[in-house]
Amino acid sequence: MSVTHSLFRAGFRCSALALSIAGASYAAAQSQPEVVNVIGQAAQMQQALEEQRLSDSVESVVHADAIGQLPDDNAAEALQRVPGVSVERDQGEGRFVRVRGLGADLNSVTINGTLVPAPEDDRRAVAMDVLPSELIQSLSVVKTLTPDMDANSLGGTVEVESLSGFDHPAAFYSLTSEASYDDNTGDTSPKVSGALSNRFSLGQGVDNFAVAAALSWENRSFGSDNVETGGAWDFDDASGARLEELEERRYDIERERTGAGLNFDYRPDDDTELYLRTLYSRYQDSETRQANVIEFADAQLPGERGDAEGTREIKDRSETQEVKSLVLGGERRLGDWTLSSQYGYSEASEDSPLHIPGASFAGNDDFIDAGYDSSKEPNLQINDAFYQASNFTLDEIEREKQLTTDTEQNIRVDLARDYFWQGLPSQVKFGTKFSTRTKDNDLEVWAYEDLDSYGFTDAQLNMANFINGNGSLGPRISASALERLMAGLDAADFYDDEQSRINDFEIQENINAAYMMNTVDIDDLRIIAGLRYEGTRLKAKGTGLNEGAFEAVDERNDYHHWLPGLHAIYQLGSNSQVRAAWTNTVVRPTFGQLFPGFVIDGDEAEFGNPQLKALESSNLDIGIEHYMGKAGAVSAFVFYKDIENFVYNANLAGTAEYAAFDEAYTYVNGDQASVYGLELAYSQQFSWLPSPWNGLLMSANGTFSKSDADIEQFDTNSGTLAKRSISLPGQSDTTGNLTLGWENSRFGIRVAANYQSDYLSEVGDVLDKRYDYRVHDQLFIDLSAHYNLTEHLQLFAEAQNITDESYYVYTGERDYNAQYEEYGPTYKVGLSLTHF
């Protein structure tokens, strides 16, 4: 079977590349890489490897022609197969991408060359599960930035390229339909997607105008079970760590994803290209959370029993995240000169209409014989009275609505000229970019408390009047019953002016950039040297509360960065190369850290810090790679990052203007941090083996890294400045992937394992590492198989998380729970029709 007949399911529902080798290389002015006739999974690996090999950067690629060889639901999960990349998960689904041990907020995401803003009010990280994979032609992670690229990532830049009509030689269409089954809830969920493209002839040209469109829709129902303590351990008791409170949670979730893209490309002649790229994604998340909260009268050891206060809670909300992107650009070649320009507009929003973020029913009396049996996965033990709704009375209902928007616009112009320097082929390139970004948050809060003063009796507020059956945690609270109660009240009486005003803000960030770089080829050596300038102007407006009085906040922060870079790529032979890169990058603090609001209440204060310095990193990468043909490659890279001004949360009480405060929490810049490590990758199709073993293929990669950062805080007890060393939050020492597959022209199967070691999630107390939050290591195993019913029709089946891996966060040591969550496996079956 030919390569094109083997590349099914162009919806890119799953990861194409289970290996995605770190490292790529330049081969211009050399012979082209070997062209090998391979099929299916191996063809997808080969295509991505060739693209990486020709890159000027250390780059890993996940290509759309990979279509469904692994059961990855979204772009984040596809990228987790890449060396050095791991993902942060939300309710078991991959969401945020970490690169080389650096948190998602320290990396950037672009769509068709324009930055993607973040829907959440406090983050820069882009939730990759918002982007339907069917709209994507390729994903790449660029780990060494050249001077003509935005310098706003410390780990790497994820580049998303959408489908183009020129990606296929003729008319193309695909249609995929699938159903997934969630083992935790027993729900079955549908998904459909499709893509089409074609070329047309305009004027005197032939096939010079291309149109591509894609559409995706999924409605997934699933759930999870959770038990957490929030780190409420008392470690100072001589008899052992005692637990103060715990909470059981049950999540029932419905996520609807809708995406659409429409792209136009026009090539009126051989020297001109014009394009318009559009992408729209809508992600609606509806969540109901039932919870049991227990606060022990006296902190307890496992197995002990005693009195406790009990609370029953509910959260009921629906939020919609949208991402819109439009990129208009073109390129014109004028002899030795090439002029390119681009305008980009992108907008991300998160809209949470009026909802209940929390409502609580307090127990009428203390409950007896309360306790738990394990410090890792606390199993609540309590008398039957806790599960009787009549023993609880409505205490408070919180109500809120929130709208966050993040908009980015940019204009970029680049000019390049090819020339010879002392007989050596060279290129000089320079350009400029102007971008403006605005993050706006509007939150309104209502707190329904003391309802007995509004004429309600205890009998009317009894929980028995607000239930709609039983669940795994006992009687289920009805959100609609609570809404009916609030409908009879005047909302103005319960408006929380403080929370509503303090959390509103607008942050504007303007970045002006310019660069110059030169490339020269000296026999087998390519050298790229350049300098980039980025000037940042920040404006932050918000509201503070000072001893009950509101104050307007208007902050300014301007800074400049000069960022040199040097890349070298040396061809050892036709199939081997060495590359080295010294780069400098910069990342602005998150919007939550730059938050302009504050609260000062007596001797306690909490505030953001718009005057934070940007994080700066000097990066060194050295590696070697060897390509073996037939989807075969092996590579090894070492990297080192020297980071300045990393940001962490600290208590400034006892220092300077906060000398008289007991608490003064804000964000501060640390002095220095470092990350260093080794990336290894291997892939191979064993085509030389006798049949049927010649259908085997394998890919494996591993990243082994370390990080170190010093944090400090004034210790009011000792009157001294205390310091300690931590690893950077989000950094796993070990990440790895192993994929084994087999295929022929009719059938293919793959099993993939993804591993990441434990990592620091959050510093709980700068002065006491026992209260740090760490995420336990995770090993996810997925299985996929497909059968080609005809040349164009494929049947596929998939299983995700077949070992039922959990999410476990612990406090200080692994025995002490902060959060434990289970999701269960998910199974899928579907049909895909593809025509080239």
UniProtKB/TrEMBL annotation:
SUPFAM superfamilies: Porins. Belongs to the TonB-dependent receptor family. This is TonB-dependent receptor. PANTHER family: PLUG DOMAIN-CONTAINING PROTEIN, TONB-DEPENDENT RECEPTOR-LIKE BETA-BARREL DOMAIN-CONTAINING PROTEIN. Keywords: Cell outer membrane, Membrane, Receptor, Signal, TonB box, Transmembrane, Transmembrane beta strand, Transport. Gene3D superfamilies: TonB-dependent receptor, beta-barrel domain (2.40.170.20), TonB-dependent receptor, plug domain (2.170.130.10). It is found in: Cell outer membrane. Residues 1-29 form the signal peptide. InterPro entries: Beta-barrel_TonB (IPR000531), Beta-barrel_TonB_sf (IPR036942), Plug_dom (IPR012910), Plug_dom_sf (IPR037066), TonB-dep_rcpt-like (IPR039426), TonB_rcpt_bac (IPR010104). Its main location: membrane. It is a multi-pass membrane protein. Residues 373-802 form the TonB-dependent receptor-like beta-barrel domain.
